Amino acid sequence: MDLTSALIVDDHPLFCDALAMTLQAVASIDTVETAGRLADALARLEAGAGPDLVVLDLNLPDVEGLDGLIRIAKAASVPVMVVSSMTDDRLIGAALRAGAAGYVPKHSARDVFRAAVDTIRAGGTFVPDGYVPHDGEGGDTADATERLATLTAQQARILELVCAGKLNKQIAFDLSIAETTVKAHVTAIMRKLGVQSRTQAVLIAKQASFASVLQDMR
After folding, report:
1. Which of 24, 120, 202, 215 is most buried when burial is the number of CB atoms within 10 A of its CB?
2. d(CA 164, CA 83)
3. Do residues 16 and 117 share a domain?
4. What secondary structure, in 3-state letters, does the chain show?
5. What is the pTM of this model?
6. Cβ–Cβ < 8 Å for 71, 38
7. Which residues touch 218 (CB under 8 Å, ≥6 apart)?
8. What's the total number of domains in the chain?
9. Please, which residues bridge with residue 9 across strands?
């Protein structure tokens, strides 16, 4: 896999600069762009920006839980490497199930970033030293994450708006699509999530949030 360009999605400019220099110096990444919000990153991807790798911080201003990872993994169609200050094994496992091709703690040395990119470049999945998957880890949260990962990018966006309490008519206006199209997507979302109502779909989405994941860790 040829990885020569990357899009870093992180709201800390100094860390973005440091990470960009690290990727260029040790991982043969020639071109690096940055975005401070998930919405900015998605807009770039939708406009045709084509990085070979997305490097994503999970804790962004416009993201709740793992929704950002799920949405950008769908939109990018390239590997997504999570770089986060949170390193609990259950969160790492949840991120991998949500579509991450690798997970690197923010405090890692440069050699770790080189190893992570090399692993992803070779088609593998990178996990940090010491990561231990748990049997049946996450319980209901793991199941919710796996079901949410089956949604398309558009379905994930519509579910986000449903979670915000918006009606089909409002969603259609926001996304500039027909209301009948929204209804079709909502039906498909409920089918994929295995639920019978919008309320149940919202509950599934909430189960995959950081709050739920972190609560399961206690």
Report:
1. 120
2. 27
3. yes
4. CCCCEEEEECCCHHHHHHHHHHHHHHCCCCEEEEECCHHHHHHHHHCCCCCCEEEECCCCCCCCCCHHHHHHHHHHCCCEEEEECCCCHHHHHHHHHCCCCEEEECCCCHHHHHHHHHHHHCCCCECCCCCCCCCCCCCHHHHHHHHHCCCCHHHHHHHHHHHCCCCHHHHHHHHCCCHHHHHHHHHHHHHHHCCCCHHHHHHHHHHCCHHHHHHHHC
5. 0.71
6. yes
7. none
8. 2
9. 35, 56
107 and 158 inside one domain: no
Residue of 211, 214, 215 lying closest to 64 (CA atoms): 211
Query: Is 133 within the bounds of a domain?
Result: no
CATH number of the domain residue 200 falls in:
1.10.10.10
- Tokens standing for residue 136: 């049946």
Residues 6+ apart with CB under 8 A from 111: 26
Pair 70, 149 in one domain: no
Across 24-28, 147-151, 167-171, 206-210, least confident range: 206-210
Q: Is the pLDDT of residue 106 over 90?
A: yes
d(CA 69, CA 38): 9
Given the structure tokens 């973005």, which residue do they identify? Answer: 16
Give strand pairing partners of 6: 32, 53
Identity of residue 124: G
Tell me: pLDDT of 108 over 90: yes
Which position has the token pair 């990357």?
A: 6
